[in-house]
TrEMBL record:
<dbReference type="InterPro" id="IPR000210">
    <property type="entry name" value="BTB/POZ_dom"/>
</dbReference>
<feature type="domain" description="TLDc">
    <location>
        <begin position="298"/>
        <end position="468"/>
    </location>
</feature>
<protein>
    <recommendedName>
        <fullName>BTB domain-containing protein</fullName>
    </recommendedName>
</protein>
<dbReference type="Pfam" id="PF07534">
    <property type="entry name" value="TLD"/>
</dbReference>
<dbReference type="InterPro" id="IPR006571">
    <property type="entry name" value="TLDc_dom"/>
</dbReference>
<dbReference type="GO" id="GO:0005737">
    <property type="term" value="C:cytoplasm"/>
</dbReference>
<dbReference type="Pfam" id="PF07707">
    <property type="entry name" value="BACK"/>
</dbReference>
<dbReference type="InterPro" id="IPR011705">
    <property type="entry name" value="BACK"/>
</dbReference>
<dbReference type="Pfam" id="PF00651">
    <property type="entry name" value="BTB"/>
</dbReference>
<dbReference type="InterPro" id="IPR011333">
    <property type="entry name" value="SKP1/BTB/POZ_sf"/>
</dbReference>
<feature type="domain" description="BTB">
    <location>
        <begin position="23"/>
        <end position="96"/>
    </location>
</feature>
<dbReference type="InterPro" id="IPR052407">
    <property type="entry name" value="BTB_POZ_domain_cont_9"/>
</dbReference>
Length: 478
């Protein structure tokens, strides 16, 4: 075994940095009144950074009295001091550094091609500076979106905003958001907010960004055709990202149609085709995500969510409707398609959705239970237990894009909405139950029928999702 003595190595290199007089590089950093001169060794800088390997090559360097002179006005002394200590010793202490300086360190790490340091600083900001990041989203976003290597922090910021978007989009700083960042945000499907709020914030951002509008001309009743054309030009790339089918008829009339002149005709055609011809929109509705290999997001957003809310399929959503998140907890091809695996993964009394893909067919069956499917443990002596729910339902789709031939069967006998039995994965009052690799559909009068005859199907795939309610309200920047 070869011994490794990193501790003493780091200590010795630190002394070279602090005390040695054989340096051959002078680095001037900072600008104006905030400048400092650092002394270093070109051989160490080249060995530790590919940036310095190129910058200190004979073709680029400037020498005075055989000393290499190097200027970095865009890096502050505090940041460069941290970088130099890292280069020489491999050590970095961020405990007493301000969040702003840590962000500057991230920028400098990217420029100086210090990949290891860049990764570490990103992780540190995400793990230790969460509150500061959320209070300064625009600053952080504008910084990291200029750095290709900061994808992890970019994604973290966008995901954090999507989980709780209201504080961000209602802030004044949102109106100064860079258009490329806004585009990245609006094209996401997981913004947990009603679509009319997304539209409202886009219009406010567009007015602020359009020459001739903004605070001096925000009343659209005074706008000329030129003003509308200018706003249309500003929002041209963003309007197709709005999911208009997720906006209620009332809000479409009151908040969208007043801006009809800036919206492409094809979008209004798509709205009509959805409502009158059951043609799915080109973009799925956002505000709900489901990690499913069985069903399309559109069917969840447009159909199943309305059934959960006891509304007709494709009823327009309103600002008062709850929003839902779907968390995958069981997948048959991953966890095993059998009753025991299902019960182990899906026990507990929590609102849940189960989806089943039938082998040799495009047919999809499923069921929603507001009380879950099973108790927390095995039943004594294989007893049968029934549980009450007035909200449960079962359903079927002809395929994962079916908007016309779906069937809904709501619970009739509330006291037998769910049956718990050791040998069944789930059992919707005998109307639909999982028995290992088989799905059985019967008619015991506990649910409305979704098939005319009793049948047994072989399961190709099965998924279960926990459902949580994120009831977010709309907002105003006024």
């Amino acid at each position: 075994m070869t011994p490794i003595f990193y501790s003493n190595l780091s200590k010795d290199l630190s002394s070279i940095l602090n005390d040695s007089d054989d340096y051959n590089v002078i680095i001037q950093v900072g600008e104006n009144q905030n400048t400092k001169e650092f002394r270093a060794h070109s051989v160490i800088l080249r060995a530790r950074s590919s940036y310095f390997r190129g910058a200190l090559s004979s073709n680029w360097i400037t020498k005075q009295n055989n000393m290499i002179m190097f200027n970095k006005p865009n890096v502050t002394p505090i940041v460069f001091d941290m970088i130099l200590k890292y280069i020489y010793t491999g050590e970095l202490d961020l405990t007493n550094q301000t969040s702003e300086d840590i962000l500057r360190l991230l920028i400098a790490s990217d420029e100086l091609l210090l990949e290891e340091l860049l990764v570490y600083v990103q992780d540190y900001l995400i793990e230790e500076q969460i509150n500061w990041i959320r209070q300064n989203f625009v600053l952080v976003l504008h910084t990291v979106f200029r750095l290709v290597s900061c994808k992890k922090l970019q994604d973290y910021c966008l995901e954090s905003i999507c989980e709780n978007p209201l504080p961000f989009i209602t802030s004044r700083t949102f109106l100064s958001l860079d258009k490329d960042i806004l585009f990245n945000l609006l094209e996401r499907d997981d913004i947990l907010i009603e679509e009319i709020a997304v539209w409202d914030c886009l219009i406010k951002w567009g007015i602020e960004q359009t020459p001739g509008l903004g605070n001096s001309n925000s009343d659209k009743t005074n706008w000329s055709n030129e003003n509308y054309e200018a706003l249309k030009k500003t929002l041209n790339q963003f309007i197709p990202l709005i999911r208009f089918m997720g906006i209620s008829h009332t809000d479409l009339f009151n908040k969208v149609y007043p801006y009809k002149s800036i919206i492409p005709d094809r979008i209004f055609k798509e709205i009509d085709e959805f409502y009158y011809k059951s043609i799915l929109p080109s973009l799925p509705l956002r505000t709900r995500q489901i990690e499913s290999n069985i069903i399309k997001l559109e069917l969840v957003n447009l159909i199943i969510v309305n059934w959960i809310d006891k509304k007709n399929s494709k009823s327009p959503r309103t600002g008062n409707d709850p929003l839902y998140k779907f968390k995958l907890i069981y997948r048959g091809t991953r966890d095993g398609i059998n009753s025991k695996s299902f019960k182990n993964k899906c026990n507990g009394r929590v609102p849940s959705l189960v989806l089943i893909k039938i082998r040799g067919s495009n047919k999809i069956f499923g069921g929603y239970s507001s009380i879950g499917f099973n108790s927390l443990g095995e039943l004594y002596n294989n007893n049968l237990l029934y549980y009450y729910s007035s909200n449960n339902f079962i359903f079927s789709f002809d395929n994962n894009k079916d908007m016309k031939n779906m069937k809904l069967g709501r619970v009739i006998n509330d006291s037998r909405a769910i049956m718990d039995y050791n040998h069944h994965g789930f059992n919707f009052g005998w109307a639909m139950c999982m028995v290992n690799q088989n799905l059985c559909l019967n008619d015991y009068g506990n649910y409305e029928k979704i098939l005319s005859t009793e049948k047994i199907f072989n399961i190709e795939e099965i998924e279960t999702f926990l459902i949580t309610n994120n009831n977010l309200s709309s907002f105003s920047l006024d």
